[in-house]
Amino acid sequence: MSPSEVYKAQELVYELKTAEVMSRRLVTATPQMTMREVKGLLRGRRISGLPVLDGDSLVGIVSIEDLIHSLERGDLDSPVRDHMTPRVHTINERESAVRALSVFSQFHVGRLPVLDSAGKLVGIITPDDITRGVLRALQNAYQDEEIRRYRASHFFEDMASERTSVILRFNVPMRDFNQAGHASSQIKQTLNRLGIDPRIVRRVAIVSYEAEMNIVIHSTTGGRLEAEVTPEMISVLAYDLGPGIPDVEKAMQPGYSTAPDSVREMGFGAGMGLANIQACSDAMYLDSLPPGGTRLEAMIYFNKAEGKALDEVTLRSP
Known about the structure:
Blueprint: H1 3-15, H2 18-21, H3 35-45, E1 49-54, E2 57-63, H4 64-72, E3 91-92, H5 97-107, E4 112-115, E5 121-125, H6 127-155, E6 166-172, H7 182-193, H8 198-218, E7 223-229, E8 233-240, H9 248-251, H10 261-264, H11 273-280, E9 283-288, E10 294-301, E11 312-316
Parallel strand pairs: 3-4, 9-11
Antiparallel strand pairs: 1-2, 4-5, 6-7, 7-8, 8-10, 9-10
Helix pairs in contact: 1-6, 7-8, 8-11
Protein backbone atom coordinates (compact mmCIF):
# COMPACT_ATOMS: atom_id res chain seq x y z
CA MET A 1 0.00 0.00 0.00
CA SER A 2 1.46 3.35 -1.06
CA PRO A 3 1.86 6.24 1.44
CA SER A 4 -1.10 8.07 -0.12
CA GLU A 5 -3.25 4.95 0.29
CA VAL A 6 -2.16 4.65 3.94
CA TYR A 7 -3.12 8.27 4.60
CA LYS A 8 -6.47 7.75 2.89
CA ALA A 9 -7.11 4.60 4.92
CA GLN A 10 -6.35 6.48 8.15
CA GLU A 11 -8.72 9.24 7.09
CA LEU A 12 -11.47 6.74 6.35
CA VAL A 13 -11.15 5.10 9.78
CA TYR A 14 -12.04 8.47 11.30
CA GLU A 15 -14.87 9.09 8.83
CA LEU A 16 -16.53 5.66 8.94
CA LYS A 17 -19.25 5.15 11.52
CA THR A 18 -19.60 1.90 13.42
CA ALA A 19 -23.00 1.31 11.82
CA GLU A 20 -21.36 1.30 8.36
CA VAL A 21 -18.96 -1.56 9.11
CA MET A 22 -20.62 -3.66 11.82
CA SER A 23 -22.27 -7.02 11.16
CA ARG A 24 -26.07 -6.90 11.44
CA ARG A 25 -26.43 -10.67 11.32
CA LEU A 26 -27.00 -11.19 15.00
CA VAL A 27 -26.51 -14.65 16.48
CA THR A 28 -27.29 -14.48 20.18
CA ALA A 29 -27.48 -16.71 23.24
CA THR A 30 -29.70 -16.59 26.31
CA PRO A 31 -28.63 -17.04 29.93
CA GLN A 32 -30.57 -20.30 30.08
CA MET A 33 -28.89 -21.95 27.07
CA THR A 34 -26.28 -24.61 27.77
CA MET A 35 -22.65 -24.29 26.79
CA ARG A 36 -23.18 -27.35 24.58
CA GLU A 37 -25.71 -25.32 22.55
CA VAL A 38 -23.23 -22.45 22.41
CA LYS A 39 -20.62 -24.85 21.06
CA GLY A 40 -22.98 -25.80 18.24
CA LEU A 41 -23.68 -22.17 17.39
CA LEU A 42 -20.01 -21.14 17.39
CA ARG A 43 -19.02 -24.10 15.24
CA GLY A 44 -21.98 -23.84 12.86
CA ARG A 45 -21.67 -20.09 12.30
CA ARG A 46 -17.84 -20.06 12.40
CA ILE A 47 -17.78 -17.23 14.95
CA SER A 48 -15.86 -16.77 18.18
CA GLY A 49 -18.38 -15.11 20.50
CA LEU A 50 -22.06 -14.43 21.15
CA PRO A 51 -23.88 -11.59 22.90
CA VAL A 52 -26.20 -12.89 25.60
CA LEU A 53 -29.72 -11.42 25.66
CA ASP A 54 -32.35 -11.68 28.36
CA GLY A 55 -35.35 -10.54 26.40
CA ASP A 56 -34.17 -7.35 24.68
CA SER A 57 -31.55 -6.58 27.32
CA LEU A 58 -27.86 -7.26 26.77
CA VAL A 59 -26.67 -9.07 29.90
CA GLY A 60 -23.32 -10.50 28.85
CA ILE A 61 -21.13 -12.03 26.20
CA VAL A 62 -19.94 -15.62 25.85
CA SER A 63 -16.78 -16.40 23.91
CA ILE A 64 -14.87 -19.38 22.61
CA GLU A 65 -12.52 -18.91 25.57
CA ASP A 66 -15.49 -19.41 27.92
CA LEU A 67 -16.39 -22.55 25.96
CA ILE A 68 -12.85 -23.93 26.34
CA HIS A 69 -12.99 -23.38 30.10
CA SER A 70 -16.31 -25.20 30.33
CA LEU A 71 -14.88 -28.08 28.30
CA GLU A 72 -11.88 -28.31 30.64
CA ARG A 73 -14.24 -28.47 33.62
CA GLY A 74 -16.67 -30.90 31.99
CA ASP A 75 -19.48 -28.34 32.31
CA LEU A 76 -20.93 -28.36 28.79
CA ASP A 77 -24.44 -28.84 30.10
CA SER A 78 -24.25 -25.94 32.56
CA PRO A 79 -26.08 -22.67 31.66
CA VAL A 80 -24.46 -19.80 29.84
CA ARG A 81 -25.04 -17.49 32.82
CA ASP A 82 -22.38 -19.45 34.75
CA HIS A 83 -19.69 -18.84 32.13
CA MET A 84 -20.46 -15.59 30.33
CA THR A 85 -18.77 -12.25 30.97
CA PRO A 86 -21.48 -10.05 32.49
CA ARG A 87 -19.64 -6.73 32.23
CA VAL A 88 -19.65 -6.01 28.53
CA HIS A 89 -17.86 -3.21 26.69
CA THR A 90 -20.16 -1.76 24.04
CA ILE A 91 -20.15 0.98 21.43
CA ASN A 92 -22.86 3.17 19.94
CA GLU A 93 -23.66 2.73 16.26
CA ARG A 94 -23.07 6.46 15.63
CA GLU A 95 -19.52 6.42 16.99
CA SER A 96 -16.57 6.32 14.60
CA ALA A 97 -14.67 3.18 13.67
CA VAL A 98 -11.54 4.70 15.22
CA ARG A 99 -13.36 4.82 18.56
CA ALA A 100 -14.05 1.10 18.24
CA LEU A 101 -10.37 0.44 17.51
CA SER A 102 -9.49 2.38 20.64
CA VAL A 103 -11.79 0.19 22.76
CA PHE A 104 -10.34 -3.00 21.22
CA SER A 105 -6.84 -1.81 22.06
CA GLN A 106 -7.63 -0.57 25.56
CA PHE A 107 -9.62 -3.57 26.82
CA HIS A 108 -8.11 -6.35 24.66
CA VAL A 109 -11.48 -7.64 23.48
CA GLY A 110 -12.15 -9.26 20.12
CA ARG A 111 -15.71 -8.08 19.52
CA LEU A 112 -18.02 -5.30 20.64
CA PRO A 113 -21.82 -5.35 20.80
CA VAL A 114 -23.21 -2.28 19.01
CA LEU A 115 -26.16 -0.45 20.56
CA ASP A 116 -28.55 2.13 19.14
CA SER A 117 -29.53 5.34 20.91
CA ALA A 118 -32.19 3.44 22.89
CA GLY A 119 -29.65 0.90 24.16
CA LYS A 120 -30.93 -1.91 21.95
CA LEU A 121 -28.47 -4.39 20.42
CA VAL A 122 -28.28 -3.78 16.65
CA GLY A 123 -24.98 -5.37 15.62
CA ILE A 124 -21.54 -6.76 16.40
CA ILE A 125 -18.23 -5.26 15.33
CA THR A 126 -14.75 -6.83 15.20
CA PRO A 127 -11.38 -5.47 14.03
CA ASP A 128 -11.82 -7.54 10.85
CA ASP A 129 -15.12 -5.76 10.18
CA ILE A 130 -13.31 -2.43 10.33
CA THR A 131 -10.56 -3.65 7.99
CA ARG A 132 -13.11 -4.89 5.46
CA GLY A 133 -15.07 -1.64 5.79
CA VAL A 134 -12.00 0.49 5.14
CA LEU A 135 -11.06 -1.61 2.10
CA ARG A 136 -14.59 -1.25 0.70
CA ALA A 137 -14.51 2.49 1.33
CA LEU A 138 -11.10 2.75 -0.36
CA GLN A 139 -12.40 0.88 -3.39
CA ASN A 140 -15.45 3.14 -3.58
CA ALA A 141 -13.26 6.23 -3.19
CA TYR A 142 -11.01 5.11 -6.06
CA GLN A 143 -14.02 4.35 -8.24
CA ASP A 144 -15.50 7.78 -7.49
CA GLU A 145 -12.13 9.36 -8.28
CA GLU A 146 -11.94 7.53 -11.60
CA ILE A 147 -15.46 8.68 -12.46
CA ARG A 148 -14.58 12.28 -11.58
CA ARG A 149 -11.42 12.13 -13.66
CA TYR A 150 -13.30 10.62 -16.59
CA ARG A 151 -15.96 13.30 -16.38
CA ALA A 152 -13.33 16.01 -16.16
CA SER A 153 -11.40 14.67 -19.15
CA HIS A 154 -14.58 14.59 -21.24
CA PHE A 155 -16.18 17.69 -19.76
CA PHE A 156 -15.10 20.08 -22.50
CA GLU A 157 -15.31 17.48 -25.27
CA ASP A 158 -19.05 17.17 -24.75
CA MET A 159 -19.61 20.94 -25.14
CA ALA A 160 -20.52 22.15 -28.63
CA SER A 161 -18.94 25.58 -28.50
CA GLU A 162 -16.05 27.49 -30.05
CA ARG A 163 -14.89 28.50 -26.59
CA THR A 164 -16.02 26.72 -23.46
CA SER A 165 -15.00 27.50 -19.90
CA VAL A 166 -16.13 27.19 -16.31
CA ILE A 167 -15.96 30.36 -14.22
CA LEU A 168 -15.96 30.36 -10.43
CA ARG A 169 -16.61 33.84 -8.99
CA PHE A 170 -16.49 35.02 -5.36
CA ASN A 171 -16.84 38.36 -3.62
CA VAL A 172 -14.06 38.98 -1.09
CA PRO A 173 -14.80 41.46 1.73
CA MET A 174 -12.07 43.68 3.15
CA ARG A 175 -10.51 42.89 6.54
CA ASP A 176 -12.83 39.94 7.17
CA PHE A 177 -10.27 37.52 8.55
CA ASN A 178 -12.95 35.10 9.76
CA GLN A 179 -13.91 34.40 6.14
CA ALA A 180 -10.42 34.84 4.71
CA GLY A 181 -9.45 31.84 2.58
CA HIS A 182 -13.05 30.70 1.98
CA ALA A 183 -13.09 31.58 -1.72
CA SER A 184 -9.76 29.90 -2.49
CA SER A 185 -10.86 26.85 -0.50
CA GLN A 186 -14.03 26.60 -2.61
CA ILE A 187 -11.97 26.88 -5.79
CA LYS A 188 -9.67 24.07 -4.64
CA GLN A 189 -12.60 21.88 -3.68
CA THR A 190 -14.31 22.38 -7.05
CA LEU A 191 -11.14 21.64 -9.02
CA ASN A 192 -10.65 18.42 -7.05
CA ARG A 193 -14.23 17.41 -7.83
CA LEU A 194 -13.57 18.05 -11.50
CA GLY A 195 -10.67 15.62 -11.32
CA ILE A 196 -7.99 18.19 -12.16
CA ASP A 197 -4.39 16.98 -11.73
CA PRO A 198 -3.55 17.43 -8.00
CA ARG A 199 -0.27 19.15 -8.92
CA ILE A 200 -2.21 21.77 -10.86
CA VAL A 201 -4.75 22.11 -8.05
CA ARG A 202 -2.00 22.78 -5.50
CA ARG A 203 -0.55 25.59 -7.59
CA VAL A 204 -3.96 27.15 -8.22
CA ALA A 205 -4.79 26.87 -4.51
CA ILE A 206 -1.64 28.81 -3.56
CA VAL A 207 -2.24 31.48 -6.22
CA SER A 208 -5.90 31.96 -5.32
CA TYR A 209 -5.24 32.01 -1.56
CA GLU A 210 -2.48 34.62 -1.82
CA ALA A 211 -4.57 36.74 -4.18
CA GLU A 212 -7.59 36.50 -1.86
CA MET A 213 -5.51 37.48 1.18
CA ASN A 214 -4.10 40.50 -0.64
CA ILE A 215 -7.67 41.73 -1.20
CA VAL A 216 -8.62 41.07 2.43
CA ILE A 217 -5.54 42.84 3.80
CA HIS A 218 -4.96 45.74 1.44
CA SER A 219 -8.19 46.72 -0.33
CA THR A 220 -10.38 49.54 0.97
CA THR A 221 -13.62 48.28 -0.57
CA GLY A 222 -13.17 44.54 -0.90
CA GLY A 223 -12.87 42.86 -4.28
CA ARG A 224 -13.53 39.79 -6.36
CA LEU A 225 -11.73 36.51 -6.97
CA GLU A 226 -12.38 34.43 -10.07
CA ALA A 227 -11.03 31.18 -11.47
CA GLU A 228 -11.70 30.27 -15.09
CA VAL A 229 -11.14 26.68 -16.21
CA THR A 230 -10.63 26.07 -19.94
CA PRO A 231 -9.36 22.99 -21.82
CA GLU A 232 -5.87 24.55 -21.88
CA MET A 233 -5.40 26.26 -18.53
CA ILE A 234 -6.78 27.71 -15.32
CA SER A 235 -6.76 31.48 -14.99
CA VAL A 236 -7.03 33.16 -11.59
CA LEU A 237 -8.23 36.77 -11.63
CA ALA A 238 -8.28 39.05 -8.58
CA TYR A 239 -9.22 42.70 -8.58
CA ASP A 240 -10.31 45.49 -6.27
CA LEU A 241 -11.09 49.21 -6.53
CA GLY A 242 -8.39 50.60 -4.31
CA PRO A 243 -6.09 51.88 -3.07
CA GLY A 244 -3.69 50.34 -5.59
CA ILE A 245 0.05 49.64 -5.35
CA PRO A 246 2.33 52.70 -5.67
CA ASP A 247 5.41 50.66 -6.63
CA VAL A 248 4.57 47.30 -8.16
CA GLU A 249 8.16 46.18 -8.73
CA LYS A 250 9.00 46.84 -5.10
CA ALA A 251 5.88 44.99 -3.98
CA MET A 252 7.07 41.94 -5.94
CA GLN A 253 10.18 41.66 -3.78
CA PRO A 254 9.91 38.80 -1.22
CA GLY A 255 9.43 40.15 2.29
CA TYR A 256 8.26 43.62 1.27
CA SER A 257 4.91 44.44 2.88
CA THR A 258 2.73 47.47 3.46
CA ALA A 259 0.36 45.60 5.78
CA PRO A 260 -0.35 47.47 9.04
CA ASP A 261 1.10 46.17 12.30
CA SER A 262 -2.33 45.01 13.49
CA VAL A 263 -2.55 42.65 10.52
CA ARG A 264 1.03 41.43 10.84
CA GLU A 265 0.43 40.64 14.52
CA MET A 266 -2.28 38.20 13.40
CA GLY A 267 0.26 36.38 11.24
CA PHE A 268 -0.75 37.88 7.89
CA GLY A 269 0.99 40.30 5.55
CA ALA A 270 4.46 38.74 5.53
CA GLY A 271 5.19 40.16 2.10
CA MET A 272 5.37 36.82 0.29
CA GLY A 273 1.98 36.89 -1.45
CA LEU A 274 2.96 38.23 -4.88
CA ALA A 275 6.23 36.29 -4.84
CA ASN A 276 4.36 33.05 -4.15
CA ILE A 277 1.85 33.80 -6.90
CA GLN A 278 4.69 34.44 -9.34
CA ALA A 279 6.46 31.22 -8.35
CA CYS A 280 3.33 29.10 -8.95
CA SER A 281 2.24 30.70 -12.24
CA ASP A 282 3.16 30.11 -15.87
CA ALA A 283 2.18 33.67 -16.74
CA MET A 284 1.25 36.64 -14.58
CA TYR A 285 -0.15 40.10 -15.28
CA LEU A 286 -0.38 42.75 -12.59
CA ASP A 287 -1.89 46.20 -13.19
CA SER A 288 -2.18 48.71 -10.37
CA LEU A 289 -3.07 52.36 -10.90
CA PRO A 290 -3.57 54.22 -7.59
CA PRO A 291 -6.12 55.16 -6.54
CA GLY A 292 -8.03 53.10 -9.09
CA GLY A 293 -7.23 49.67 -7.68
CA THR A 294 -5.40 46.52 -8.67
CA ARG A 295 -5.98 43.79 -11.23
CA LEU A 296 -4.00 40.55 -11.00
CA GLU A 297 -4.25 37.65 -13.42
CA ALA A 298 -2.24 34.43 -13.14
CA MET A 299 -2.33 31.51 -15.58
CA ILE A 300 -1.46 27.86 -14.93
CA TYR A 301 -1.32 25.64 -18.02
CA PHE A 302 -2.29 21.97 -17.93
CA ASN A 303 0.67 20.87 -20.02
CA LYS A 304 3.15 22.24 -17.43
CA ALA A 305 2.03 20.29 -14.37
CA GLU A 306 5.53 19.22 -13.43
CA GLY A 307 7.08 22.67 -13.30
CA LYS A 308 6.41 26.21 -12.25
CA ALA A 309 8.53 28.01 -14.83
CA LEU A 310 7.27 31.50 -15.52
CA ASP A 311 6.73 32.21 -19.20
CA GLU A 312 5.77 35.80 -18.83
CA VAL A 313 5.47 38.48 -16.18
CA THR A 314 3.88 41.82 -16.98
CA LEU A 315 3.81 44.54 -14.33
CA ARG A 316 2.30 47.97 -14.71
CA SER A 317 2.15 50.84 -12.23
CA PRO A 318 2.39 54.65 -12.47
